[in-house]
């Protein structure tokens, strides 16, 4: 069975990303070679070709897998995404390997090959044939920058990526990847990580320790494979740099060097960029989370007290005390790193890819004193968290989603706000994709409206990054709206209904209580409140205690009143109602009980009456 072609040679069975042929994965696994590769009957092996090339009939891999990294110049090279090219492939391409990179002709060939590869990467992937998980849904939105007149434009192509797959042994894999400086890394991670985790590496008899080991190894393989995949670009970069006069700034070079400078910029772009990754594995009714960077995982569980929301990972940022301590152990000035806040434009202290930071850190002032690589791709792994008897949902979200909400509402409470939005959409929507997309659209609208308002927080909202939200359901009711539902951003009075949460500023598992927002205290105009807007009345936390009730920004007291909804709904008439002389019809819902409770709480000054 043929797979994705690699420079004219189709991948054979067992040569999927991250699964070396002929059982070469044994050095990463305790399984036998046959268990590392899929069987012909497995649906995971149905990989389609994306090009109509004539493929070689060779099925056996050379005995020297994994290939030696530039060990024998001229003997082998690197193909698509770090997979090997063997001598037959190189001769067919007319390439002599990296050793020939000193001449412009060889560099041109290498550049032409990479352009062809980059074009092929836009075509369908082998992962398109993996069974998708229908217990999950995804929503996304591209980045947006706003001009003074409120018009929005995309600053760059979408750099986020995600995956949601299941395997035959009831192993589920989910991931959200947040890229920067291009989408090559996120696309690579999505494909290779799937192969490293879904092709026999995880088994039902695995312990928590086994799962942790497999996840660590998978991330390590993905990181090394990506860096190897840009070897030819690095060789071309070295060749181009050797042709330029030393010590002369590029803008001062004579005209005959401009083409080399322009090509060097293109190559620099090819090797730049990285990704943050949050990955979830469900195996044996347990949940495992592996995180590199600043994306987040939330587990939302329905309890007798409401919806408990817990962040399962910690953010790897320059604010993370553990990460700062790690830097100090490497000989770096942790205080200065925290003060600066970013490292080459990113807050994350762990990343996949980003060659310049990984191997050029000695040229970065903040990192130059490090004893070893300070920016790493090693994941922090949590779990397994038992899912026995759990009713709720899992949330994986990219940094862009919660950062956009924090920009509009202030930092600290994005997790529970997003969880409340998701719970609300569960009642309104009939598919998980619709749930996730509705929440993303809501956050995008809040961010845009905050910028357009010209208010205090508008200065924080000139742009937002790509946003991705993945929701995995664990038996939470979908599309079962049995009573009127008010979203957490409908403004006004807050009455407690839910939801605990783990603060992103602490590694401890704390919780707060979310609340359902009721109509605000304002003059009633044709049944609408004129004193607040959706965004102005969005609830925010009034303190940072472990357990606290959300309140609207335009109220100061909290009511604990509650009532049964047994008398709220009148029987729907069997005939069409005719409007009265004022053009109104009799309501289907009796608000008398609501008005009674409202007036009890607010007294005469804020009393409402039935018109």
Structural overview:
The chain is of the alpha+beta class and 611 residues long. Among the domains are: 391-560, no CATH class; 567-611, no CATH class. The chain has 14 helices and 22 strands. Strands 8, 9, 10, 11, 14 and 15 form a six-stranded antiparallel beta sheet that branches. Helix 6 (231-242) packs antiparallel against helix 7 (258-271), helix 11 (399-409) runs parallel beside helix 13 and helix 12 packs across helix 13 (432-453). The N and C termini lie far apart (73 Å).
Structural class: alpha+beta
N-to-C CA distance: 73 Å
Low-confidence runs: 1-104, 482-571
Helix residue percentage = 25-40%
- Proportion of residues in extended strands: 15-25%
Question: What is the number of helical segments per DSSP (H or I, 4+ residues)?
Answer: 14
Integer-rounded radius of gyration: 28 Å
Given the C-alpha coordinates, what overall shape results? globular
Number of DSSP strand runs? 22
What kind of sheet is the major sheet? 6 strands, antiparallel
Mean pLDDT: 72
